[in-house]
Amino acid sequence: MVPPRKSAGTASWTLSVIVPIILIVLILGADFREGPKTAYVGVLTAVPFFAAIFGSPLMTAVTAVITWTSGFLFGLLASDGNAPAQTVRLVIIALAGFIAVGASYVRQRRDIQFREAQREAAQAQALRLQAGQDDLTRLLNRRGVYERLESEEIHDATVVVLDCDDFKEVNDTYGHLVGDEFLQGIAGRLTGAVSRSDLIARWGGDEFLIIVRGPFVEGSEVAARVVREVSSRPMSTSAGLIPVSLSAGAAPLSSSTSLDQALGAADRAMYQAKGRGTGHVVVDAAASDGGPPA
Q: Which ranges in the chain belong to alpha helices (H)?
């Protein structure tokens, strides 16, 4: 059985109170060994500051009181006969205690502000990621794609726009909840069919987008393979097995071509594919090197 971890509160009390008490014992013990005097009592001024590093203002105040009381009692038991000097030492220890409590308060406030800043930054990052993510499929959405591409320079890639054939019939026959399951299943298959370096997004409704990195010839081949793999077997849903069919259009994306231009070309090619029936892939006619057979 794994022993429970020591809580942060217990650790703070240990470092800010118990360890300082041990320091006090060591300091006064060394003083006592040298004879009946209180020369080392002044060293106790450092003890509250040690507590301020690790503890809260309350913990530091407790340590400061213990420190001053220890110096006072030690002066009664081992006085060197120099009462004025002892009084000065006690005053300095008291001042050091007050300063240490104030320092602990300032440190604690800064720690709180730092944690709040970290939490706000994490929340802002989470919101930014959510804003770029499709709620249903957990794929990127339009905004997410544009944000990703803004931070990357793509020299050679293929834009593939895919549309679910007859998806309206799925919704009309089985209802929108099953339709959502259907889209989630397609998103999962698309994710498993491409490389991790490729971008996948739900482009809206029943349309998906893939940006395949690499030469256009290879990208258009990937588009044809993805359509075959995703459509190779029915989709399992709560309403049973539903056939899957995709139509796709592919167009090149390069440093000389904007994403919007490539999207427009791929979108036109996709509608040409849908005009041929179901399960077809059409490559942008203006693209060089051609593409795989539709």
A: 8-13, 19-33, 46-54, 57-77, 83-131, 142-150, 167-174, 176-193, 216-230, 259-275
Question: In the CATH hierarchy, which top-level class contains the domain 142-283?
Answer: alpha beta
Separation CA 26–CA 30 (nearest Å): 6
pLDDT tens by residue, 171-199: 999 999 999 999 999 999 999 999 988 99
For the stretch 83-123, pLDDT in tens is: 677 788 889 999 999 999 999 999 999 998 999 888 888 87
Closest C-alpha to 283, from 251, 254, 245? 251
Q: Give the closest residue to 55 by CA, choosing from 47, 91, 72.
A: 47
Q: What is the DSSP letter of 195?
A: -
Hey, where are the domains in the chain? Answer: 8-128, 142-283
CA distance 234 to 238: 13
User: Closest by alpha carbon to 15, among 51, 43, 44, 47?
Assistant: 51
**DSSP label at residue 270:** H
Q: Is 180 annotated in the active site? A: no
pTM: 0.61
Q: Which of 134, 206, 267, 284 is catalytic?
A: 206
